[in-house]
UniProtKB/TrEMBL annotation:
SMART domains: CoA_trans. SUPFAM superfamilies: NagB/RpiA/CoA transferase-like. Keywords: Transferase. Pfam families: CoA_trans. This is CoA-transferase. It comes from Micromonospora aurantiaca. GO terms for molecular function: CoA-transferase activity. It comes from the Bacteria.
């Protein structure tokens, strides 16, 4: 069942498709960089922890829209420069739908349950309603129990999920925080596991299955898939790589040079 990452990305990521990129706390740079190398355009990405992966996809011209919880550099004070430039310049080429992590998880849960929306708190004191940060993802409904604030269901066409271990049947083990990743796999029409290691079924069962194979359509073995982010029990976050990116992406020309040297 294990396949080459380039082949899986070419099959599942196409213009106009909604693509969930996991995980919260372990960003799949290997998948994002493969999307950039294949010069895929007009992708609608769903990503809880946008971070520098979303910043790179934005700067490389991959995105048509992004539904995200946040987009920042985890090793500040340097910002996510492409995101900042787009915001400051009023660039509207990419539709940005900001949701809190809780709202995004609720939207994915609605997708997993195959219902059109999920009730959420009223969100007082935020800009989600007054300034419509979500750009139409939030609404209100009347019900037999009274009015409710709701978030629209999220159903990605494909979810890429990072796991530490996977077996040939698609069962996966996550050793870091689960976050929203299980409901994302349940909500998506297709799910791809990107594993640090593909091993035998007995080892996976002994470690404790996080994502069952019945949800999974493909498995990719990709050691170091989240680098320069860190993988629990495997490798730490590469702070120096983040710092180099922050320095070089401070200008648009600098980002383009970084992209040509480090990704393409």
């Amino acid at each position: 069942m294990s396949r080459a990452l380039a082949d899986v990305v070419a099959e599942h990521v196409r213009p106009g498709r909604r693509v969930y990129l996991g995980n919260f706390g372990a960003q799949l740079f290997a998948v994002g960089h493969e999307m950039i190398r294949q010069r895929i355009r007009d992708v609608d990405v769903v990503i809880a922890s946008g971070g520098l992966l979303m910043d790179q996809l934005l700067g490389a011209g991959v995105l048509r829209s992004a539904t995200y919880g946040h987009c920042w550099s985890p090793v500040g004070p340097a910002p996510a420069w492409n995101f900042r430039r787009a915001a400051q310049d009023g660039d509207t080429r990419v539709a940005l739908h900001e949701l809190s992590l809780g709202l995004l998880t609720a939207a994915l849960t609605a997708g997993a349950w195959r219902v059109p929306f999920m009730p959420v708190p009223d969100l007082p004191g935020t800009g989600y309603l007054d300034e419509d940060w979500s750009r139409g993802r939030l609404s209100s409904v009347d019900s037999a129990f009274g009015p409710a604030r709701v978030v629209r269901a999220e159903r990605p066409d494909v979810a890429f999920v990072h796991v530490d271990l996977a077996d040939a049947d698609g069962n996966g083990v996550i050793r870091g925080p689960l976050g929203e990743v299980l409901v994302a796999a349940q909500a998506a029409r297709r799910t791809v596991l990107v594993a640090e290691q593909v091993t035998d079924a007995e080892t996976v069962r002994a470690a404790g299955i996080s994502i069952p194979g019945l949800l999974v359509d493909a498995v990719v073995e990709s050691p170091g898939a989240v680098h320069p982010d860190g993988a629990v029990g495997r490798y730490p976050r590469d702070v120096e790589a983040y710092q180099r990116y922050a320095r070089r992406s401070a200008t648009a020309d600098g980002f383009r040079r970084w992209l040509a040297e480090e990704v393409l």
